[in-house]
From TrEMBL:
It comes from Aerosakkonema funiforme FACHB-1375. Signal peptide: none annotated. Residues 24-331 form the ATPase AAA-type core domain. Gene3D superfamilies: P-loop containing nucleotide triphosphate hydrolases. InterPro entries: ATPase_AAA_core (IPR003959), Bact_Antivir_Def_Nuclease (IPR051396), P-loop_NTPase (IPR027417), RecF-like (IPR014555). This is AAA family ATPase. One of its GO terms (molecular function) is ATP binding.
Amino acid sequence: MLRDLTIQNYRCFKDFHIDGLARVNLIVGSNNSGKTSLLEAVYLLVNQVNLEPLINFLYNRGEIADYSISQSSFVRGEIERRSGYEIRHIFYGHQLNTEQTISVRSEKEAPLSVQFQIKEPERIQKPPGFDLFLTPEGGSIEPSKFLLLFSDGRGTTMPIPIRDDGLITGKAFRQWNEHQPHAFVTTSNSRLFTQNISSNFFLTTTNINFQQMAVFWDKITLTPKEESVVAALQILEPNIERISFTSRQSSSSGVLLKLHGQHNPINLGSMGEGMRRMLSLAMAAVTVENGLLLVDEIETGLYYEAQTDMWRLIFSTAKRLNLQVFATTHSWDCIAGFQEALAEFEDNSVGKLFRLSRRDEKIRAVEYTADELAVAVRQSIEVR
C-alpha cells in the first residue's frame, strides 16, 4: 500500500509531495488543481515500465495531432494523414526539454519509481533489437533527434523515438510492444491499446466498456464476489436479484438484470447511467483484490442519497480485499457521504480526505482525518 507520493514535473506538478496516505483516499480541489493528474501519476507508478496507461491518458485527454507521411512507394506519391501522441503535455510547462525529468516515486516503498526524460539518441545505449530511428511507412529513414526515455526503480529502461514535431507515433509504441508481448492488447479501433485487467485499475468518468465488463465478470461469476456486485446494485434498485451477460457486444444491451417480480430481464441501459456507474465501480473493486483502484469523479451518475451507501461499500470492500482506493470528487454530497460512512466504520483511520490547494505554481495537499472532516462537514466548512 502506498504511504507517500512525490511527483516532479508531471503535468501541473512542479514539485509535489503527499504523505500519510490511507487505504481509501478522497482527493478534492478546485478546477485545474491536479486531481486527475494525481491519479494518473499514481497509476503510472504502480504499473512501472508499462506504456499502456500513458497512451490511454493521452488518448482520453485528446492530446493527439495529425501528421503526414509520403506514400510515394505505393500510390502516385499521395500523402497520408495519421495521428500521433503529443508527449510534451505530460511535462510541466508543456515543453520538451532535455533538462527536465518527470519523476514519480514513493520513498517508503523504494525502489518504487518511474521516470520520463528527453534524451538525444547518441547519449544513450540502444537496447538490442531496438531502432532509434523513425522509419515512416513508404518514406526514407529519418533520424530521431530526441527520445523519450522511460525507466523504473528496478533498472528497466525503454527508449521511444520522438518525431521532430514532438509526436510519438503508433509505430514507435508498437516497436516497444514487440519487446513486451504480454503488456498490451492491440485493437482495431482508434485506440492503440486497451486497458488490461490486472491488479490495478483506473476507472474514468466514461465507465467500463462491454469487453472489459465481460472480462471482469468471468472472474466474478459463481464466486462470493458476485453477491457483492449484486448488493452494490441493490443500493440503487433493491429489487435486483441477478446479473447476466449475453453475446451482444454492447455495454447497454449485453448486460441483463433480473428484478424481483419481473418475468423478463431488463437491459442495463434501461436502468440509467447511475446503474452502469455502480456496476463499473463494484466490478472493478472486487476484481482488483490486493491491488489499487483509482476512480475519477466517483460520484458521476449517482444520486446524492446513494453516495453514503456507495462509500460504505468502498470501505468494506477495501478492508476485506486488501484494496487501496484513490478517488476524486468536486461534490459536497460525495464528501458528506464519505464522512458519514467513515464515521460508522470500526476503524476510521481507513479513510482520509486530501484537498489539493494551489497558490501560484505551487500545489500542496491539505490532509483531513476522520475527526477533522466530521467537524468540517458538521459546521459546513468548505473543504473542496
